[in-house]
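User: Can you write out an input/output pair for a complex, sequences first and structure second?

Assistant: Here is one pair. Inputs:
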Amino acid sequence: MEETLLKIREVSKHFGGVYAVNGVSLDINHGGICGLVGPNGSGKTTLFNTILGLHRPDEGTIYFNGKCINNLAPHQIYELGVVNAFQLPRLFYNLSVLDNMLVAARGHQGDRLYNSLFLRGRWQEQEVELAGRAMEILESLELDNLALSPAGELSGGQRKLLEVGRGVMASPTLLLLDEPAAGINPNLGKRIFEGIEDLAQEGLSFFIIEHRLEILFDFAHWVYVMDKGKIVVEGKPEEVLEDPAFYQVYLGE
Amino acid sequence: MIVNWAQVFFNSAITGSLYLIGAVGLTLTYGLSRFPNFAHAEFITLGAYIGYLVAEQAGLGLPLALVVAFLVTGIVGILCYRGIFQPLAKRGASIIHLMVASIALGFILRHSIGAAWTWKPLYFTTTWSSFDIGPLRITGLWVWLILTSVALAVLMHFILVKTKIGKAIRATSSNPELALASGINVDRVILMTWFIGAGLAAIAGIFRGADSQIWPTTGWDIILPMFAVAILGGIGNFYGAIAAAFIIGLAENIGVVGLVALGLSTTYRIGIAFLILIITLIVKPEGLAMLFRRA
Amino acid sequence: MGPLLYVSDLIVYIGIFGIVALSLNLEFGFAGLANFGKVAFFLIGAYTYALLSQIGVPFYLCLIAGASISAIFGLLVSLPALRLRADYLAIAVLAFGEILRLIVKSEKWLAGGDWGTPVSPIFSYTGSYIIYRLENIGLVFLCLFICFLVVQLLTNSPYGRVLRAIREDEVAAEALGKNRSKYKAQAFMLGSAMAGLAGGLYAQYLQYVLPGMFMPMVTFTVWIMVLVGGPANNWGALLGAALVQIIARGTNIAKDYIALPIDLSNLQYILFGALIILVLLYRPQGLLRESQVKTRAIEGLRRGRNAVKNKRSK
């Protein structure tokens, strides 16, 4: 089995001549929390969207578990185990909170047309289990009492939490989180990262974009710093904090 | 088979002229208000009936009919926008809801016209002089149509490029938020666009009615080719619409030659515009927008 | 005798268009597909039925064939069209429907062109119009029941949940592992099959098919049914179908009984237009609200919640 879970080699993505991601190479290993930081507009979200399959890389290759995923559709990349929580939550607002979670569930037998009509018993049982698991996750996010409410009724912070919860519900191998603590009070943010740490110890790998450096650096094992589409610094959090290049990125021209 | 190509090209100019006048309003309002206005068909029909009232029943002649129809229908356009589309948009109606509302509005207008004038077709009784230049057969009506479309196109171009409101229309078309921020009265721009668009549709209605017949579906009969022009030209793009109108006019008339050659019914003629519409939507929905500067 | 005939006729229409409304509701209400070419698939089912019954194929096979060929066309249309933006899809399918109608109009050898072709009815006239109507009501409502069962099962399942998710945000749904093209195509095919079935029932009931029966107006009428009844609610679709047909047939009936100075068929469409605009302005969710996914797990949770609530309030 490959040591490296996600391997990105010289990936570039441009929009009308402007390079959002410019020759990025990085590795994410199994069972770690990897951080991605950088000023606004440095290309972090674009990089995530390219990994996810929402954009096709213009140059370079992305490997997941040794397999090239450049040309895969997002649902196929999900199948391989890569799941994403968007920076601006993309919830199903007219569906209940619980329904949002259940859509994310992996391998739900009831998702199939034939099964939904003719083999109802098979997935009804499965759904009870999945709902149980979903409620556990919702409880840890303090959203369980809103399980049957439409997602549209959630506050901004709650929506963020649900977005992350959905990602966890999807039983990913690698979970990409785009600013999970944004818009959430610092204590809850810390609790989320503690939850992330627990999940990482159980074998889930994380790649996290975060602006709240103080929280991220407490938990991440490795950090990549991006600026203007390129990786400029990488290393363990304490190493990055000692690198002058890191400060230049945030304070420089 | 002997084909009178001169006539084919001349006919293309006629079809293109009609489509241009009719589709300008559609493409501009589609681009600005961001939904396909199917009631545009009824602006065309209304124009035909007003033209009939003025030219036939009151006997006041074509030019006055064109002006009156333009003004009255333009006002109807503004009323439709203010009364229905703007309130809906304010309530967050989706593009499909707005489209459905325009279809519903079309029902109301079409059947009000039908109730007022009955569904019996009406005809302009003006006899148009027709003369032959070489292999070409030309009627006075067609000359009027082509001249009107050229005049209107030039006038629109002048308005868009030289006048303040025209520049405001172009600015709002390409970037409504920026236009609002630069102090442009976007509301007035939108009203103006709806006014001009509906008014032009009315003029197209008169020519269409004069060339075929006037009945409550005069506009609806050609609404899909109008959409074909709007989409092929690039939604919201005036210059693109000019090119698209004549391309489709050409395609239809050359297509008729082809249909006859293949032994197919000429009722398929209108299907040519349908095909262009579908193919453009599937292959390149932005149409010719790339080739023509915005608006 | 007169009123019974009118009412039974109305009931048949409600049944047939109930099926079409359910199909549009599945496509638009649940899956978010703006199918403005519904009449095209209705036409395909009707003409397939007409042509096959003419060569002696038994009626149930004609109905199944009508549904199947409609479904095939639905698949063909879905391949290029379903990835289009909502308004582009709407216009494209509308144009497709018009092309189909143009073809059946122009190709006289196919089914009589503009003048259409007669269709042999399933139930032969045995001397009582009422019996004929009742037999049709029986058949149509049997089909309606089956279709209703299918869409209710579908939409109250994880599959239905995925359809709604795709409607809400197809990119997010895709990122959560749902192949949106597959789901959309399936919904579209199923909807087309149902419309095709209804088309066959329509053809044999009216005992005639001609192009003028398949104008875009039919599509718009079905849209009114779904929007007024309540999108994403199957009972709403049926309610909408009933309401619209009552208004439509009602004005036709009134025409025969009351001599009014105005042509009532014009009034009917003005009413429809006004109704839809009022609904869009003041009750866009329709008469019946969107239905939520009902599965054993969710119902269990709901009951548990209510039990706790009831215990607390006691």
